[in-house]
Specification:
homodimer; alpha/beta; Creatine Amidinohydrolase, Chain A, domain 1; Creatine Amidinohydrolase; 2 domains; six-stranded mixed sheet; 33% helix
Chain lengths: 398, 398
């Protein structure tokens, strides 16, 4: 096996960027008394090493010690994927055998624990991402059993918080995602039309997401196109069917552009025909509230203050909105493009800083209708800069 | 709120099918001493109730008691999604408020526990899917804290095993997925060509997956197109880049057709130009071994016997294959279309029964090249019936 890994898909950033990310992660580990952070969130694995592949459906992780380079541990057949997409030394890439996978009485985390013990880390304090999708209660129990001398601390969201402030190179990735999103939204607005099957419109949307632009390709967004239509607009997370769009109905489109796992999400609502006054009125209120939130977002302001600007604006309208109006976003993998750190809602006193990035999505869902109009924005010293430029309002196709 | 839920996207099967699934689930619960099964796997939630939506990125579940109808508990804004896609009574759909989500010191499972206590189930024995993607260690801890009088048992894979034998209506869904897959593979084989950007080929593939056929639309597969190319073929789970395909290189395409969440997956390998003898030879061996496995697969045979037929066939070739050659498949959600029950590998003595469905994927990955040729098949009394019809061999585009 060659010492130098083949790199058909090298990391998206230069080595110095990864080194800085790891240094910031270690500083937070020290604050929390964590000696080895076990990173199971694929976005965090990518953030720290560049690792990229659809292998997160099996247990895998990057172990980040304070005193040695990160170590990738995953399924044997994915070890070449780690060599292909990271700059880790081949000796820091460990693949486990297939016979621990989906086998009663065994678990891949048994093998992971063995690797960690073999590194001499058996008695260390490990940080675990206790609320990540890709660490199960069973996996946690296997780690505890396999590392009987270790201590376990909560390392949940530790790296997510490091990710909150984006580097210039990351902002450039999100700008590329925004260019893709603009093409995607233009395609979507064109495709949603009376008599067209929902699946045919989404086929065009999905193709635009993956195609990207002539200058750079699209990556798969962490969430598939969400496209509730007609009475389905009363809830945000329905996907599509093969029923045709109908005149006289609204369709909510929540879509993203994605480049090298960086997202620019956006929601728009399309109405086919002449919208009922309640929908047109709601659209005007939502846009006014969204604009107020964007105007309020700048360094030094809290998340709840941004939401407050929205809330004050819509208070006079009679519309009610009980869920949060936005969240931190950027690099991610399925099933979510949100970072699970800051939310734009009452009580969240996180302070906005330059180069944070949010998706502000003040959706309104009533008993049998709804509307979403959103913007993904970059916090700059001059205020919120929306990443993408798409007509901000109810889109009416007469 | 109306008593009758609006149903823009009604369940895929008639009520009797869901009732039979729930009855089989309860029989297994009784065997394991489980009084209430908490189903967090979205495929299992769909299987038992029809619930469908991209909401699994937040904690949600279907609680199945022995003595009452199932109860959906999820995020408030998704409750209308449960009304739209299931036949559950409105009183059996509970939405939690947004202020437990992504908030330090709170967890949605706090709210879930409150609903369960409110049903009078606080002292029951709950079965949990301890190795599912969508139950975290933190969520499990919140359930334990919120249900101090309850007992917890492992209900992992309980419903997955109920899913192993498909009904005629489910087989019909997979046949539809196979029709979609045939269109997808034809598109893929056409699209992979020298100088074409990988992302442009995948755009065409993704569109074909979603478009489906003229008779029925496509759904999103649980795994995006995997498309390792050139040296990337040494590992199976790389997605695409925007680099162009090159003459003289192989590309592995692992793709699925999907309809109403039912999958028909398949892998093929395309070579642009004249394949090197080692690849052409490997393709012949893989096809011979795959054919032997398909010939061996019939009711009464074990999973390891199917793998043995493959193993004996390739033994003479010098090729080595250490990972499993297949797994049970069907209904699923991201990140996997495998069911995590049976695997075609040594030691798995599960007995094949009529109407089980498998993906037999004997991939070979070497240091700097690889090949995959697979079939998704239906176990019938007459033997294995491949769902889709696509030329079985290395696809050479001179």
């Amino acid at each position: 096996m060659p010492d130098i890994a083949p790199q058909p898909q090298p990391p998206a950033f230069p080595p110095a960027e990864y080194e800085a990310r790891i240094a910031r992660t270690r500083a937070r580990m020290e604050e929390r008394g964590i000696e080895v952070l076990l990173v199971t969130d694929p976005a965090n694995m990518n953030y720290l090493t560049g690792y990229d592949g659809w292998s997160f459906y099996v247990p895998q992780l990057v172990a980040v010690p304070l005193d040695a380079p990160p170590v990738w541990i995953g399924r044997g057949i994915d070890a070449n994927g780690a060599r292909a997409t990271t700059s880790l030394a081949v000796t820091d890439i460990h693949g486990y055998a297939d016979d621990v996978l989906h086998w009663p009485g065994r678990h891949p985390m048994d093998a992971v624990a063995e690797v960690l013990r073999g590194r001499g880390w058996g008695a260390r304090t490990f940080g675990l991402e206790m609320d990540s999708y890709y660490l199960s209660p069973r996996g946690f129990a296997a780690l505890q059993a396999g590392l009987p001398d270790a201590r376990f601390a909560d390392g949940d969201l530790l790296v997510n918080w490091v990710r909150a402030i984006k580097s210039p190179a990351e902002i450039a990735m999100m700008d590329r995602a925004a260019r893709i999103l603009e093409a995607v939204m233009a395609t979507a607005i064109e495709a949603v039309a009376p008599g067209v099957r929902q699946c045919d419109a989404v086929a065009a949307i999905a193709a635009a997401q993956v195609r990207g632009t002539g200058d750079f390709g699209g990556d798969y967004p962490s969430i598939v196109p969400m496209l509730p239509s007609g009475p389905g607009t009363s809830t945000p997370h329905l996907t599509w069917s093969d029923a045709p769009f109908k005149t006289g109905e609204a369709t909510i489109m929540e879509l993203a552009g994605c480049h090298r796992r960086y997202h620019c999400p956006m929601a728009r609502t399309v109405f086919l025909g002449t919208p009922p006054p309640r929908l047109a009125d709601a659209a005007a209120v939502v846009v006014e509230g969204l604009n107020a939130a964007l105007d309020a977002a700048k360094p030094g302001v809290t998340c709840e203050e941004v939401e407050g600007a929205w809330r004050r604006t819509i208070a006079k309208s009679g519309l009610v909105k009980e869920s949060r109006i936005g969240y931190s976003t950027g690099l991610n993998y399925p099933p979510d493009w949100g970072e699970h750190t800051m939310s734009l809602r009452p009580g969240d006193r996180s302070v906005l800083q330059a180069d944070m990035t949010f998706h502000c999505i003040p959706g309104i869902w009533m008993d049998d209708w709804g509307i979403e109009i959103s913007e993904c924005f970059h916090v700059t010293e001059q205020g919120a800069r929306p990443f993408a430029s798409v007509e901000r309002g109810l889109i009416v196709k007469p």
